[in-house]
C-alpha cells in the first residue's frame, strides 16, 4: 500500500515538473527598426500574461501614425486577423502566437512609404470568478526603410582591427621564418665545417661514412647524432693522441 502511494506521488511530481518545464516563456524583445527596401520586417508587440491570466479576451489594433499624428488602422485581430482597405492591404500578415502573448504582425514586402511610426494597442479583459478587470497596452515602433543596409561604425572598426591584426601576424611570421632559416643555415655550415675537419684530422671516414651524421634542425639548437659509438670514441681518442706543432 505504501509503495503504491509513493509511486503515485512520484508520478504527480514528475507531471508537475514536466508542465512547468514545457510552459512557454514570454520575453519582451526589442523590435526591429531598419529594413532594406523590398524585404520583410516584423513589427514586434509583446504582452506577457501570468498563468492565471490566460483566460482573457484579447483584441489588438495596429495603427500607422502620420506626421500629423493621425492614426490609420491598418490591421486588427479579434479572434481572427482583419485587414482594412488601406495601402498596406495584402502586404500584412499575422505573426502572433496562439497564447496571444506575442501580438506581432509582419510587413511582407516593404516600400519607402512604409517608413514611419506604428502603434500597437492591446486590449485585454480577464475573466475571474468575482470581477473582470481590463488591461490596456500601447507600444510605438519607428521603422526606417532604406535602399541599402547601413553599416554600423562599431562593426566597421572591429573588421578593420581584425584585418590589421591578421596582416601584422602574417608579417611577423614571415620575419620569424627568415630569421630561423638564416640561423639554421649558419649552424649547418659550422657543423659541416667541424665534421669535415674531424674527418680530415682523424680519418673517421672509415668508421663514419658520409651521410651517417644527421643534423636535427631547430631554430635554437642543431644536434648532431652519431650512429657509431665506437667511431665517436675512436675520434675522441685520436684527437687526444694527435701531436700539436708550434
From TrEMBL:
Ion transport keyword on record: yes
Cross-referenced PROSITE patterns: IG_LIKE (PS50835)
First and last residue of the signal peptide: 1-24
GO annotation, cellular component aspect: voltage-gated sodium channel complex
Membrane topology summary: Single-pass type I membrane protein
One MF term in the entry's GO annotations: sodium channel inhibitor activity
A biological-process GO annotation: regulation of heart rate by cardiac conduction
SUPFAM superfamilies: Immunoglobulin
Keyword Nucleotide-binding: no
Segments forming domain Ig-like: 24-142
Subcellular location: Cell membrane
Keyword vocabulary terms for this entry: Cell membrane, Disulfide bond, Glycoprotein, Immunoglobulin domain, Ion channel, Ion transport, Membrane, Signal, Sodium, Sodium channel, Sodium transport, Transmembrane, Transmembrane helix, Transport, Voltage-gated channel
Chain ranges passing through the membrane: 160-181
Assembly mode: A voltage-gated sodium (Nav) channel consists of an ion-conducting pore-forming alpha subunit functional on its own that is regulated by one or more beta subunits. Forms homodimers and homotrimers. SCN3B is non-covalently associated with alpha subunits and induces the formation of alpha subunit oligomers, including trimers. Interacts with SCN5A/Nav1.5; regulatory subunit of SCN5A/Nav1.5. Interacts with SCN7A/Nav2.1; probable regulatory subunit of SCN7A/Nav2.1. Interacts with SCN10A; regulatory subunit of SCN10A/Nav1.8.
Family indicated by similarity: Belongs to the sodium channel auxiliary subunit SCN3B (TC 8.A.17) family.
Protein name: Sodium channel regulatory subunit beta-3
Organism name: Scleropages formosus
Primary gene name: SCN3B
Amino acid at each position: 500500500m505504501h509503495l503504491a502511494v509513493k509511486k503515485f506521488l512520484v508520478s504527480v511530481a514528475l507531471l508537475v515538473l514536466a508542465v512547468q518545464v514545457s510552459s512557454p516563456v514570454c520575453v519582451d524583445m526589442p523590435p526591429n527598426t531598419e529594413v532594406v527596401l523590398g524585404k520583410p520586417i516584423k513589427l514586434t508587440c509583446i504582452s506577457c500574461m501570468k498563468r492565471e491570466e490566460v483566460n482573457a479576451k484579447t483584441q489588438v489594433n495596429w495603427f500607422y501614425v502620420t506626421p500629423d499624428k493621425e492614426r490609420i488602422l491598418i490591421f486588427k485581430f479579434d479572434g481572427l486577423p482583419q485587414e482594412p482597405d488601406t495601402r498596406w492591404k495584402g502586404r500584412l500578415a499575422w505573426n502572433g502566437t496562439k497564447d496571444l502573448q506575442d501580438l506581432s504582425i509582419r510587413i511582407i514586402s516593404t516600400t519607402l512609404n512604409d517608413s514611419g511610426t506604428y502603434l500597437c494597442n492591446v486590449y485585454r479583459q480577464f475573466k475571474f470568478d468575482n470581477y473582470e478587470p481590463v488591461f490596456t497596452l500601447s507600444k510605438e515602433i519607428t521603422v526606417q526603410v532604406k535602399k541599402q543596409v547601413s553599416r554600423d561604425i562599431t562593426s566597421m572598426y572591429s573588421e578593420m582591427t581584425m584585418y590589421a591584426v591578421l596582416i601584422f601576424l602574417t608579417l611577423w611570421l614571415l620575419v620569424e621564418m627568415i630569421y630561423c632559416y638564416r640561423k639554421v643555415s649558419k649552424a649547418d655550415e659550422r657543423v659541416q665545417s667541424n665534421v669535415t675537419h674531424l674527418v680530415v684530422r682523424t680519418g673517421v671516414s672509415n668508421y663514419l661514412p658520409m651521410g651517417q651524421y644527421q643534423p636535427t634542425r631547430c631554430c635554437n639548437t642543431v644536434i648532431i647524432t652519431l650512429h657509431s659509438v665506437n667511431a665517436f670514441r675512436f675520434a675522441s681518442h685520436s684527437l687526444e693522441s694527435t701531436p700539436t706543432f708550434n
